[in-house]
# Entry
Amino acid sequence: MNSKLLIIFFIGILNFNTSNAQDLPSGFVSETIVNHNAGLIGIEFDSLGRAYTFEKSGKLWFIKNDNISSTPFLDISFKTAECCESGLQGFALDPQYLQNGYIYLAYVLKEDSIPDNQPAPAPSVGRISRFTVMNPASPNPTVDINSEFILIGSNFSNGWPITYIGHVGGALAFGTDGSLLFSAGDGASFGDDNGSDPTSFFQKSLDIGIITWDQNIGSLRAQELNSLSGKILRIDKNTGLGLPDNPYYDGNDPGSNASKTYARGLRNPWKLLKIPHTGSISQPGKFLIGDVGTNVAEEINILESPGENFGWPYFEGIDFEDTNRPPTPPAVWKKPVIAMRDAIYGNIHGNKTEVGTISLPGDNLSGNASIVIGDFYHDFASYPEIYHDNLFFGDFVSKNIYRTKFDANYNPEFIYKFGTLNDQIAAIRTSPVNGDLYVCVIDLSNSTFGQIIRIKATNSNSNPISKILLPVNFGSASYIISPDASLSYDPNPNDSLSYHWELSDGQSSTGLKPYFKVGDANNLNYNFIWLKLKVVDSTGAFSQDSLKIHFNTQKPIVDNIIADPDLNEYVDQNPINTAQFTAAVINPTSEPINYKWEVYDSHNGHRHLVHVSTDPQPNFSLPNITCESGASYWALVRCTITSDKGLSDTKDLLFSKNCWGTNQTLTFTKPSDTTYNVNRIKLTSSATSLLPITFFITSGPGSIYNDSLQFISKPGIITIRATQHGQENVHNIAPYKEQSLIVRKPRVNQSLTYNFIPSANKPASRIKLNGTTNTIDSVRFLVISGPAHIIGDSLIIDTLGKEITLIVYVAGTDELNFGFIEKKMTTCFDGINLTISTTNIDNPLRSKTVIISNQQLIDNWKYFAGNGIELLPGFKTQVGSVFEAKIAGCDEN
# Structure
């Protein structure tokens, strides 16, 4: 077999200049956000959008607002072997990093830390360690260098062995279940190393105990369970031990190499990426593995199940078998989904399919020699829709970035070149804040230096995100709505937005939060209308959101969920808890109801779907609920009902497990709505056990710092979960409590004043409305009740003697807040002569001049007149009623 030598030397320089021009699709540009004096080979983001990048020397750097820290975030270069392909290999943030501050590093031990070793290049072992960041969510977090906790590789005999200058592997990734996975290379020489290869360091490795004689089999170690080489390892992040559901777990020796092995048969798996939306609280999920190959193929493999074997060193690519190996290949091996070298192929339903054919469209390019798994692009607005759900990956040698998309069975649908960069590609990640690709590149043409390139779309101009916030979109034949656009935003912070509203009944308005009177109480001939919001940025780019406004209907309500047989809130696990679930529904309209039931496995701040049913009364078995110190688990039954008109309501039924005896309950005070320029807000929750509360963000643009909520520069609705993990042998895990708040962009508040409206004394009289504000925003008026209407800035009275309620408001803009004042007034008659036949008048009765009446008073009445009140024969009141008459005029209250 041909061999391939890829040796990467990283030598820092202090000053450099480089061109930023890259070969990218039309509508995309790149910008250099980091220039660094050493090669950067990886980048990861936390949930606040801050980045962490690292170099092979053992230095980790912190990036905030696209600015790299002036000193290393963490420096372990004094014990890291930086030689050839060895060094700091991988980095990962704990899924609860902002709460616990845990970070994980995979690195190769410096040669002089191994007794009796030789100078570099020399054999070594890899180590996986956890470090603690003392203030992870603060603006300037710091790492405790003395907090290292070694998970794998505590000494030179129990790390993963490296008997040559390459094939190190080294990527870290977390499973959905919280387990830690690592991709270890075979540690062998680049040729057909079947053991005792003279080009390798096998003898020195044997002499000092890095490998044993039975492990002196070169790349064949990738198949042997007594070695960590060429494997995907899956370990407990707290102990470094193998997990009981690993395929080769030995309960008598959980620290054995076999117990830690999750999959095998890999050569140099440099990159490892979890596939989003896979896994559960008991399953790690599915992963993509970028395995650097020989001259035969670079592979993208999909790890779907424990115990999978990817064939190396017997098999490579989709159809190559190496006959220079001992005649003991694995009986079953899994082929890659993509293989590329001088051509690119996809594995379509088990068949090798060349790119550029009808079955697999794309760009079939040569020159690929070192695969770099990148990242998935998800539901961001910054890239055009054709890139959504694409996997972006690259090749270190060709400098190409490719994109593909998988079907439900992980067959590639296409493979297109996205672009070619000027320098070698070391890592690709998608920012969780702006959705852009961030690429670590290395220039090897002269001396080594590193950059991080951001790739942005220009032709789509990062279209704004439009979102209607309207808590109630149903009601009687006629009602008032005030839709809110303040959850809309633009990914480009320098763009200003305008808001345009349209109703399908012909009404329209502008502004952040206008008012509309919808429907027609007298002649309604439709059941709903459409409300549409169009948000436009300063370049003319826009997006739209829409919502139905319903009339003469009410939302059905799930009042309660009933289990038969009844299940306690704290359930015992034996026997399995199975019940029929029924929703007690309040249905004001008697419209048909559709049901959707979901059962979730819920853990800390997330959940995983287990069962779904549309049966009105389904039977479910609750998922197994774990008792684990320091974490919380629940089973959740959710019922969603939807009327024929599309109005929905949801209710949850939550179950904890009777683990340790004493139950506890939580209280959680709802945080007030706020703006995201607030640094953080204190969260208030307590448990009856008096044990400490742990908070999690279940949705929305924020993060938890200790017992506070902090924000990123993005509006949204944040839902926070308060949990109490229990105390082993004392208190059970508490059922969680959740609260939500709205976070808006900070805007300037407006001062709104409204001058008193004098009473009108003539039908159809026109009253000039007078409202002012301290900004350029226009003051608007809307009659919300009473016989009047508005034309321009004038109030037209339709019927005298009635109360009118008026809204005076400013709708707001992208920079100005909305606000309103509600005012009431009653029009009066010029003069009135009431008779027994007079109808359609209100109490109190007002007249500008006089009131003359022979009308019988039916109930308590008030009479106000400017000049006089004359009661004629026939006027009388009921016993017990109160009659009040004042010479007070129209404006008396």
Observations:
- The helical segments are 97-100, 202-207, 257-260.
- Residues 596 and 614 are 5 Å apart (CA to CA).
- The first strand starts at residue 28 and ends at 36.
